Amino acid sequence: MEQGQGFELETASADAGTLRRVAIDPVSRVEGHGKVTLLLDDKDQVQQVRLHIVEFRGFEKFIQGRPYWEVPVMVQRLCGICPVSHHLAAAKALDQVVGASCLTASAEKLRRLMHYGQILQSHALHFFHLSSPDLLFGFASEAGRRNIVAVAAAFPEVARQGVLLRKFGQEVIRLTAGKRVHGTGAIPGGVNRALSRQERDGLLADIGQIVGWSRDAVQLVKRLHAADPALYDVFGAFRSNILSLVGAEGALDFYDGQLRVRDADGGIFVDGFDAQNYHQLIREEVKAWSYMKFPFLVALGPQQGWYKVGPLARVQNCDFISTPFAEAERREFIDYGQGKPIHAPLAYHWARMIELLHAAETIAALLPDDDLSGRDLIAGGERSREGIGVIEAPRGTLIHHYQVDEDDLVSSCNLIVSTTHNNQPMNEAIRQVARRYLNGRELTEGLLNHIEVAIRAFDPCLSCATHALGKMPLQLELQDSAGSVVGRLMTVV
Amino acid sequence: MKQASILLDGLPVPFDAGQTIMDAALAAGIFIPHLCHHPAFKPQGSCKLCTVKANGRYVSACTLPARDGMEVENNTPDLNDKRRTLLQMLFVEGNHFCPSCEQSGNCMLQALAYELEMLSPHFDQFYPNRPVDASHPEVLLDFNRCILCELCVRASRDVDGKSVFSLSGRGINKHLIVNAESGRLADTDFDWADKAAQVCPVGVILKKRRGFAVPIGKRRYDIEPIARQVESLAARRADDMGHGD
Q1: How far is B51 from A62, CA to CA, in rounded Å?
Q2: Nearest-10 crossing angle of helices A156-177, A347-366
Q3: 3-class state of residue A123 by DSSP
Q4: Considering only residues 43 to 72 of chain A, which have any Cβ-Cβ distance to chain B shorter than 8 Å?
Q5: DSSP state of B124
Q6: Residue B131: closest CA among chain A residues belongs to which residue?
Q7: pLDDT bucket at A265, cuts 50 / 70 / 90
Q8: What is the pLDDT of residues B21-44, one digit of tens each?
Q9: Which residues bind Ni(2+) (chain A) (predicted)?
Q10: Any CB–CB contact under 8 A between A74 and chain B?
Q11: A330 pLDDT above the threshold of 60
C-alpha cells in the first residue's frame, strides 16, 4: 500500500452517532496515559480508529520565565523512563546559549556514556518488562500473566538478564548524573562530574557480561521472529518515510549528528540536514481529537510527509554501526529485508535489541578512556539568545528548542519528542491491526490487546508526548450505539 | 566561681553571661533546628523552628537568655512534631520545588525537612504567584522560595549599610521586596560581594549562571545531615561566605 492510505480510518464516513464505540482507556504497559477508541458498525466492521493522548501538562509553558541553567534539570521531569534524553537535549541546546560550540573531550565522552547507559536501560525496560509478556506468552494470552512477574516465573533467566541489563544502565547513569533517575550531571557547557578510576573499574568488571547478555537479547528476538514470521512480518505493517539523526560518515549515533530521511522504499530523501534548521524540515499539525501533534515533512505535506522514528528508523537509516557485534546484527537485519526497508512494527523490537547491543559495546569501548576521569569539564564562549538541542532518545529523535532573554530567563520553548513523531505511525499501525484482527469479530480483551501490542512496539512515551503524567491500569469499556456501557474489563498491570 | 549552666535535655550545658539558649547549645555542639537564626546577627525569633520548652514554657531558643539551672527540652517528639508542622506551613506558603531547585542539597529548609522527617506538605499548597527578579546582571532573586527569615534584610541593613531588602505587607500577605522605586534589584547598589548575598538559608538569592555546578554527592547536606554540622553553623561570622558556597 502507499503511504497515507491509513487516513481513511481516521474519521468514520458514516454518522458516528449510529456506530458502536469501544474504548481502550488507558492503554497499558506504556509510559503515560492514552486511550484508543474504535467505532464499529452493526456488522462489527471497524469504521474509525484513533489513538488519543488525553492529558496535558504544558512544560513548554511553565519553563518560560525560569533561568536557563535550571532547564536541563527541570524538563527531564517530563519522564521517568528516559529523563536523561531530555536532560541532555536541553543541555545541548543550552551549550549554544553559553557559547560552548565545542565541549571538552571529557564532557563529551561523559555525556555520551550517560546517554548510552540511558539507551541500554530504557531498551531493556521496554523489551523485557513491557513487551516480552506479549511476545513470549502470546497477544491473547491470559491477561493476568502478561507482566514481568509471570515472565520471571516462566523464563527466569530471560527476566533476570532483562532486570540486570537495566540495572547496569541505571548504574552508568548514577555515576555520570549523580542519581539513577533525574540527576544533574549535564549542565550548560559541559558536565559537573567525572568518573573516578574506582567507578570506572566497577563498571568495567561487569561490562563483559552485559555485552554477552545483550547479544543473547538479540538472539532471543530473532528466535521470536523466526518462530512466526507470518505474524512478525505483517502485524500492523505499513509503509512510511523514516527519519533519524545519522552520525559522522553515516554511523549510527544516538548523541549527535545530522538529520537523514529515507522514503518508504529506502531511498535517501534528505541527507546531511543540519538539525538546527529542523523547523524548515518539519512542521506539526494539530488535530482536535488529540493533545499530541502530528509532525510531517514540509516538502511532502501532512498526507505524505509523516514518518517513523526510533530503533526501526535508525538501524535502517544509518550506513553502519561502529561496534562489531551490533554491526553484524545490523547486516543480518538489513539482509532480512531483502533489499527493501522493513516496516513491520514488531521489527522495532529486533532493531531495539541491536541498539541495546550497540549501547553495551559503546559503553565497553568508552570505559577505558582516561578522558572520563578528566578535570576539564566545562566550556564556554560568546553568549547567544537561542539554542536547539537534537538527540536520539530511546524512542527516536528528540528536539529541544529554547530562546533566552537578556536577563537569562527562558522566553520560549518548543519540544518535539520522539513519540510525537510516531503519532501518525502508531495510528496507522492500530488501524492496520483493527482491519486485520477486529473486523467482524466479537471483541475480547485478548483481541483488543492486539491493538496495544502494536502501540507498544513503538515504545511510546505518552507522558513525554504531551508532557503529561499518566497512570497505567487498563480499563476496557464496551458501549452500545446509544452510548450505554454494556461491559467492562479490567486488568492489573 | 562555678560556671553557670542550663540542663539541655538533661545534659548540663555551660554558658557565659548574655548568651541565649541557642548560643549555649551551638557552643556545646548541640543542634537546635533553626532557620532565621545566624550567629552574626541579632536574633529575632521569627521562624519559631528553634522553639524549646524552658522550665515548662514554649520559648524561642535564639532569643531567650540562658539562666543558671534552667531546664530546657529540645529534642523531644512533642517539639519535633511542632517544628515539622512549622516546616510544612513554610513549604506550602511558597513554591518549593526541590526537584528542580539549584539549592537542593544546600538548602537549610530542605535539610531540616529531612532531619525532622517531613514526609509530605500535609496542608493545601498556596501556589503563590511570585515572579522572579532577573534584572541584576549577577544575581537572580527567586521570591518563590522566601521564608521571611529577614537574614538578607538584616545583613544588607546592618553589615552592608545598603538596606536593599525589606518586608512589606502584613500577616499572610507579608513578602520580601527590593528597596527601589522600580522594585528591581538592578536599580539598587546590590553587589554579589555583599553580605546580604551570602546569608539566604534557602534559594532566593542566587549567583546567576552557577546553577547545578556542584554535583550530587558534594553538596553541603549530601556530605552530612544538618544536625551534624553544628560546628560550622556556630562558626558562621558576618564575613563568612554563606551556605552552599
Answers
A1: 38
A2: 50
A3: helix
A4: 65-67, 69-70, 72
A5: P
A6: A65
A7: very high
A8: 999 999 999 999 999 999 999 999
A9: 79, 82, 461
A10: yes
A11: yes
* Per-residue cell: B62: 535564639
pLDDT of residue A464 exceeding 80, the answer is no
Phi, psi of B49 (to 5 degrees): -65, -25
- For the purposes of burial, counting CB atoms within 10 Å of the CB of A401, is it exposed (0-12), middle (13-18) or buried (19 or more)? buried
Q: How many residues does chain B have?
A: 245
For residue A26, whether the previous peptide bond is cis, meaning omega lies within 30 degrees of 0, is yes
Give the β-pairing of A241-246 and A307-308.
Answer: parallel
3-class SS of residue A329? helix
For residue A320, give the 3-state DSSP assignment.
strand
Which residue from B135, B208, B215 is facing A184, i.e. has the nearest CB? B215
Nearest-CB residue to A193 (from B210, B211, B215): B215
Domains of chain B, first to last: 7-75 (3.10.20.740), 100-224 (3.30.70.20)
Give CB contacts under 8 A, 24+ apart, made by A469-474.
A469/A32, A469/A33, A469/A55, A469/A57, A470/A26, A470/A31, A470/A32, A470/A33, A470/A34, A470/A55, A471/A26, A471/A33, A472/A26, A472/A28, A472/A29, A473/A26, A473/A28, A474/A24, A474/A26, A474/A27, A474/A28
pLDDT tier for residue A493 given thresholds of 50, 70 and 90: very low
Report chain A residues whose CB lies below 8 A from the CB of B102: 69-70, 73
Chain A within 8 Å of B114 (Cβ-Cβ)? no
Residue with more model confidence, B6 or A24: B6
Q: What is the pLDDT of residues B52-104, one digit of tens each?
A: 999 999 999 999 999 999 999 999 999 999 999 999 999 999 999 999 999 99
Looking at CA atoms only, how far is residue B13 from chain A in angstroms?
A: 40
Which residues of B fall within a CB distance of 8 Å from A187? 211-213
Q: Which residue has the cell 523552628?
A: B49
Name which of A101-110, A125-134, A199-208, B146-155 the model is least confident about: A125-134
Q: Flag whether A461 is marked binding.
A: yes
Residue A314: pLDDT band (50, 70, 90) is very high
Residue A416 C-alpha cell reads as 518535539
Tell me the ipTM for this assembly. 0.92
Is A127 exposed, middle or buried, given 0-12, 13-18 or 19+ CB atoms closer than 10 A? buried
| Domains of chain A and any CATH numbers | 5-56+431-491 (no CATH), 59-238+312-412 (1.10.645.10)
Q: Spell out the residues 6+ positions from residue B22 whose beta carbon is closer than 8 angstroms to its own.
A: B32, B34, B37, B43, B50, B61, B62
For the entire predicted model, the pTM comes to: 0.91
pLDDT value of residue A297: 97
Judge whether residue B223 has pLDDT over 60. yes
- Is B184 in a helix, a strand, or coil? coil
How close A386 comes to chain B (CA, Å)?
16
Contacts with B217 from chain A: Cβ below 8 Å: 178, 193
Per-residue cell: A266: 529506502
Q: How far is A391 from chain B (nearest CA, A)?
A: 21
Mean pLDDT of chain A: 89
The DSSP code for B157 is I
Spatial distance between the Cα atoms of A89 and A72, rounded to a whole number of angstroms: 8
DSSP state of B98: G
Indicate whether A444 pLDDT > 50: yes
10 Å Cβ neighbour count for A242?
25
CA-closest candidate to residue B202, choices B99, B104, B86 = B104
Residue A26 confidence class, pLDDT cut points 50, 70, 90: confident
